[in-house]
């Protein structure tokens, strides 16, 4: 059916525009100065009605004409500066070529494995650059419906970090918790985290320094959910970031350094070869 619809639409358009065909039998749809838009240049969409096909034709022609007219206007306005435009085009082309060549070369020679010892060394040497810009925490967190069975088990164990209890708690949460994270978890921003709490509790938790230094366990409840929070550890804004919190950032920094070193050596080699082959010299 799709092929039949296409044939009908094309036939309709051909009959409508037949009077505009040129010597090559291509159907001319629109013209801007000496530029022509042909029917076979317009994308076809399956299951179009005749009305939809004409609307598509009209819209595409207008878009095509707008681009052509804009180009004509730009060419007219910059007709006295052709060298400037050509130089910009040339610079852009050179930039694209060198960029893609650099990427290809780097992918060939780059070792993406960054050893933990290198990350640690960089962290230690530059620790002054890794000051926290927000309060961060490591948490046991469970959000669970008030009607879940055996909530007393959660109350008694959500602050327990022993491996056995964490496994039991994890099994329980898989079945009943709406959201949770336990044990060896990542550092997260405190203010971002408390957005998940009931609104009336969020205000109480905003004074991070006071709240976290005083409490480690928090239990909240609204009409649907119970929230259990155990703060394993926290770091306040302005203190040094934990290594785990910035390790991925350091890895990217070290990879970028490797990329720069690789291409520096390649550039030096190209210069040496050019000098050796008498293809490069500096006049003094």
- How much strand content do the residues show? 5-15%
Question: Which residues form runs of ≥5 with pLDDT under 50?
Answer: 1-8
Rounded Rg: 33 Å
Largest sheet: 5 strands, antiparallel
Number of domains: 3
Q: Please provide the count of β strands.
A: 7
The oligomerization state is single chain
SSE series:
HEEHHHEHHEEHHHEEH
Name of the level-1 CATH class of the largest domain: Alpha Beta
How many H/I helices?
Answer: 10
What gross morphology would you assign?
flat
Structure classification: alpha+beta
Give the fraction of residues assigned to helices. 40-55%
The CATH level-2 architecture of the largest domain is identified as: Roll
What is the first-to-last residue Cα distance?
Answer: 77 Å
How would you explain this protein's 3D organization?
With 284 residues, this protein is of the alpha+beta class. It has three domains: 76 residues, no CATH class; 46 residues, no CATH class; 104 residues, Chitinase A, domain 3, CATH 3.10.50. It is built from ten helices and seven strands. The strands form two sheets. Strands 3, 4, 5, 6 and 7 form a five-stranded antiparallel sheet that branches. The protein has a two-stranded antiparallel ribbon with strand order 1-2. The chain is flat, with a radius of gyration of 33 Å. The N terminus is likely disordered.
């Amino acid at each position: 059916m799709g092929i039949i619809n296409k044939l009908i639409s094309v036939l309709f358009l051909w009959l409508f525009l037949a009077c505009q065909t040129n010597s090559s039998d291509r159907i001319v749809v629109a013209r801007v100065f000496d530029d022509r838009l042909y029917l076979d240049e317009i994308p076809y969409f399956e299951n179009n009605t005749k009305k939809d096909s004409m609307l598509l034709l009209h819209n595409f022609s207008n878009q095509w004409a707008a681009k052509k007219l804009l180009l004509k206007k730009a060419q007219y306005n910059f007709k006295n500066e052709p060298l400037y435009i050509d130089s910009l085009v040339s610079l852009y082309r050179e930039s694209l070529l060198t960029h893609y060549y650099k990427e290809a070369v780097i992918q060939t020679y780059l070792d993406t494995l960054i050893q933990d010892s290198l990350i640690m060394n960089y962290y230690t040497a530059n620790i002054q650059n890794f000051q926290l810009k927000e309060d961060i925490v490591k948490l046991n967190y469970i959000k669970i419906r008030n009607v879940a069975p055996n909530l007393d088990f959660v109350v008694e164990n959500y602050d327990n970090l022993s491996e056995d209890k964490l496994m039991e708690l994890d099994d329980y949460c898989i079945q009943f918790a709406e959201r949770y994270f336990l044990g060896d978890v990542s550092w997260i921003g405190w203010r971002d985290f408390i957005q998940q709490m009931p609104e009336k509790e969020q205000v109480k938790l905003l004074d991070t320094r006071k709240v976290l230094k005083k409490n480690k366990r928090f239990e909240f409840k609204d009409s649907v959910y119970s929230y259990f929070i155990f703060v394993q550890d926290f770091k306040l804004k302005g203190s040094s970031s934990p290594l785990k919190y910035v390790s991925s950032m350091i890895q990217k920094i070290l990879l970028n350094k490797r990329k720069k070193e690789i291409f520096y050596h390649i550039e030096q080699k190209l210069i040496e070869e050019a000098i050796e082959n008498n293809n490069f010299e500096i006049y003094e």
